[in-house]
UniProtKB/TrEMBL annotation:
SUPFAM superfamilies: Ribokinase-like. Keywords: ATP-binding, Kinase, Nucleotide-binding, Transferase. Catalyzes the phosphorylation of 5-dehydro-2-deoxy-D-gluconate (2-deoxy-5-keto-D-gluconate or DKG) to 6-phospho-5-dehydro-2-deoxy-D-gluconate (DKGP). It is an enzyme of class 2 (transferase). This is 5-dehydro-2-deoxygluconokinase. It comes from Paenibacillus phytorum. It catalyses: 5-dehydro-2-deoxy-D-gluconate + ATP = 6-phospho-5-dehydro-2-deoxy-D-gluconate + ADP + H(+). Residues 15-317 form the Carbohydrate kinase PfkB domain. Pfam families: PfkB.
Length: 336
């Protein structure tokens, strides 16, 4: 059963809009931040990580975003280009804005947190006029990510991108990517998340992210089926609700809750799971695979990233994902 059809005639597979940032991941793992002294620098930002994941899987990708006019901004642009991600719509800020930083704390494989430095960041300064209609028109998929909705003008830039995608028959995917610190009030957050989600074909988020959006709804038991059903009255064809290592469930308008097997992992840190899962899942669904097989692929990609030190740099190729699945099936990988 095919739930989403991708416009095959379009030359570009995937374009994402949103933040391009820097991750500084603790080298001394299993320690609190207070005792962490050194970090390794990687490109970060959830939509950037997903795009890098899609590129590693062999998809033709592009990014729409704004970078600071400094060494960090140039590091990001260079990394995207080296990963074959088209950067014609990566705009350089000229107001002195800075690159967002995410310092990661790896206290244990299950206790990880992120300290974000996001004052006056360039990514939130992308304007609607800077979004290239022609780039979106030529892509099969547009991915939006919730954090870009937190402030103007980036918020309007995302809605502009959504309008272009609708106009040109591009499949729209929303990774909720809710990061509380970029928002001012919970009401504002829920309003803009809901307005954007109404326009999307595939919505991916954790149970907690959907809870945040449901502040105006009546779903006291946090029932996944009720959560998903609302979006089928708008544009959605697939709603995925993620539950960490318990796996995820994909709901479709026919009332089916699709589940896939998850894999064991030797976990180094938990962050990056969602981004790699998204890349693997979207790749699979774009190949015409079943929802279950696509979810399985996303789960395996997630295991590879959470077993590694970085998010972006660890995004796997198809050979790496296939190899991981085969090794799990042979019982060669066990959970940490
Ligand atoms: N400890 C784990 N072991 C195996 N698979 C995992 C584990 N944690 C996450 N996954 C896989 O990754 C998928 C997405 O994870 P999760 O629900 O934690 O997303 P997320 O909260 O968006 O991630 P992130 O921490 O990157 O924001 C899960 O559905 C599961 O397949
Ligand atoms: O999304 C961010 O800004 C930070 C990410 O790059 C980070 O590594 C992460 O949280 C991935 O889920």
């Amino acid at each position: 059963m095919t739930y989403v059809s991708f416009p095959q005639s379009k030359p570009l597979d995937f374009v994402a809009i949103g933040r391009l940032c820097i991750d500084l991941n603790a080298n001394e793992i299993n320690r609190p931040m207070e005792e962490t002294m050194t970090f390794t620098k990687y490109v970060g930002g959830s939509p950037a990580n997903i795009t890098i994941g899609m590129a590693r899987l062999g998809m033709k990708t592009a990014f729409i975003g704004k970078i600071a006019n400094d060494q960090m901004g140039r590091f990001i642009a260079d990394y995207l280009e080296r990963n074959n991600i088209e950067t014609t719509n990566v705009v350089t800020d000229n107001t002195g804005a800075v690159t967002g930083l995410a310092f990661t704390e790896i206290k244990s494989p299950t206790e990880c947190s992120i300290l974000m430095y996001r004052d006056n960041v360039a990514d939130l300064l992308l304007t609607p006029a800077e979004v290239q209609e022609s780039l979106i028109a030529e892509s099969k998929v547009l991915l939006i990510s919730g954090t870009a909705l937190a402030q103007s003008p980036s918020r309007e830039a995302v809605f502009q991108a959504l309008d272009y995608a609708k106009k040109h028959g591009v499949v729209i995917i929303f990774d909720l990517d809710y990061r509380p610190y970029t928002w001012k009030t919970s009401e504002e957050t829920a309003v803009y998340y809901n307005l954007a989600a109404e326009k999307c074909d595939i919505i991916l988020g954790t149970r907690e992210e959907f809870d945040m959006m449901e502040r105006f709804e009546n779903n006291p038991e946090k029932n996944d089926q009720i959560t998903a059903a609302k979006w089928f009255d708008y544009s959605a064809k697939i709603v995925i609700i993620k539950h960490g290592k318990e796996g995820s469930i994909a709901y479709t308008p026919d009332g089916i809750g699709h589940r896939a097997k998850s894999f064991p992992a030797k976990v180094v840190k938990t962050f990056g799971a969602g981004d790699s899962y998204a890349a693997g899942f979207i790749y699979g669904i774009m190949q015409g695979w079943t929802i279950e097989k696509s979810m399985e692929y996303g789960s395996a990609a997630a295991c590879i990233v959470i077993s590694s030190h970085s998010c972006s740099d660890a995004m796997p190729t198809t050979d790496q994902v296939n190899d991981y699945i085969e090794r799990c099936n042979r019982g060669e990988i066990t959970a940490s």
